[in-house]
Predict the 3D structure of the following.
Amino acid sequence: MKKAGILNRHLSGALAELGHGDEVLVCDAGMPIPDGPRVVDLAFRAGTPSFAEVLDGLLVELVVEGATAAKEIRQANPATASLLTREFPDLELVPHERLKELSAGARLVVRTGEARPYANVLLRCGVFF
């Protein structure tokens, strides 16, 4: 049994399969999930687990070389926008419809219980060396 890190066996296993350039969509409870990517649904109740909690846990385990979010987040959800710009100074912002299109190419989708709008980010995996 693992004693630290992400304990969810489905999520831990999915993360171990990722490689350089693979994309991971971390999304709120309302984001449409495209057909194709592997999905780990962590949503339990509205707000649980939060987008911030899940993102924090993922960033401990993943090397991320880039991130993309919806530009609408700035006005609709300033707290999450601030979190993302703090974590990713080079955050790319695109229209929400474009983010939904891009998410179809994700290898993994991690759905949170987040109930605030536009709490979605597409992470591009890097390499640790």
Summary: Residues 24 and 108 are 5 Å apart (CA to CA). The mean pLDDT is 97.
